[in-house]
Amino acid sequence: MLDLLAADAPAQELAAQPARARAAGAAPEDVARIEETTGAALAVRRVLDQYRRREAELVALFDTAGDLAGLRDLDAVLRAIVRRARTLLGSDVAYLTLHDPVAHDTFMRVTEGSVSAAFQQLRLGMGEGLGGLVAQTARPYASTDYRTDRRYRHTGAIDDGVAEEGLRGILGVPLRLGGEVIGVLFAADRTPREFTPDAIALLGSLADHAAVAIDSARRLEETRTALARLEAANATARAHGEALHQASDAHDRLSKLVLRGAGTDEVAAEIAALLGGGVAVHDTDGSELARVGTAPVTPAAASLEASRTEGRAVRADGVWCCAVLAGAEPLGSIVLTGRPDLPEADRRLFERAALVTAMLLLVRRSVAETEDRVRGELLDDLLAGPASSAHWDEGSLALRARRLGVDLARPHAVAVLDCAPALRSRLAAETARAARRLGGLAGTRHGNTVLLAPCDRPAGLARDLAADLARIIGTPVTVGAAGPGTGPEHHAALHAEALRCRTALHSLGRTGEGADVTELGFIGVLLGDRAAIGPYVERVLGPVLAYDAERGTELVRTLDAYYDQGASLSRAKDTLHVHVNTVVQRLDRVAQLLGPDWNKPAGALEIHLALRLHRLSRGTAGPGTRRA
Fold it and tell me: pTM of this prediction?
């Protein structure tokens, strides 16, 4: 037995000696003496194992203390503590949770031996499960088999995570800093286990070391933060001095540009040089005024609105945007590219550049307003028409227009625009800007904003103006258009028709839309001074006319008879000399071509009127006359 103990034989080897003696035929008294000796040897072995385990625990604690002394990475130290807890307690899993003061619960910080992702993401509320109870009471707790242990408050999430990890026996001890519990250290097995007081004491010692590590890391981080703040304060002071010098130099350079009457291109180039990036300047409608060192770029509407609201430069989508303002009035925007990060000094310089740009745009607007007055006077003379004066001279008007870059020999459309009274002056300004872009004229006549622009599709022009100007000024804009017309003598009539169209849009409840008389249905036919019958008939009856022309059918004649006989199928079939089923089939085909609402009151009125106009325009007989 002494030889076996000296050789560090396992306990199983010691316990097997009595059985071997019996098998060898030893006398009963010898076997009894061997059994007594085996019991003493096993007791000695247990003491030696206890000393050896205690020695390993002390070594682990000393190693942990050494790790804390050279603390550089908190995560590494906590992982080492959890790993040693698992090794020393011989557990399948060890893990550590920390307190979340915001959510008032604990969350998994480090795990060792875990295989379940759900378990590794568990959060334990105060008082929930074994760990929540440890965190709440600051006392260690152990469970031989957590699944069946009803001493703890079980929750679905915790039980599911524990079950997925397969844990049974669990021991948890608190991580304390003074009277505060900052987390819990656990050791757990996937089989039921009774944790001894020695195991609880060992895990508690490791938990104390973990708490010290966390506290040391926090204090080290606070020290580093304080040093960083001090360094940042010094850097800020130095940067402030440099920024003052840079701002003074930039102010001098930009001021010289303004004093000598530089244009937008020169200012943009100077700003780009000062900030080391690309610069683009835009008008209020988004049109580009100048661009230096960058591809075409348009500021996002949200960032531009944020800059207007905050009065500062805003970064979005990798570019910087600053609204160009005169007080609260927007004049445009300036965009800076190629500078993902913009220090505060450069940001202020960029914002100061926006102020200089605002002054330049104000000067530019004053020049434009002078030109707009000249254009407005010409437009007013054109819209007055030959009947306004015996001295009205078409050639003189054409010459004045050419000097302004307007060719009256091209087809032109006239649009009359309207919006809320409070924004009509803004509407007039934006319409004048649109006229310059379109190569036309804009002005105010009898309180209405009017635009004359080269165009052969007045309806499209009206819709575009209504949408674009509403977006720019922030209120619905109603646009009535007429045209196209060639020559100054037609513009007065076009203006009158556009004005009636605009009035009709309001009356029809279509405020905020743009259209010409051809898009107002039979109302447009009644309002129009010129031949709008053909487009109207085509819009209402086009599919039916095309079907008859292609297949030689009589759908139009059937519709004529149907409406002439008061929408009576029986009387219509007598007029057409066909069976009533034929009339029904033809009308079903009409429904397929014109849509299911063709025979509702509004649709029927449009179709009936279009049929009459079609018959008049073609000089055809009534529906009761058969075709040859």
Answer: 0.39
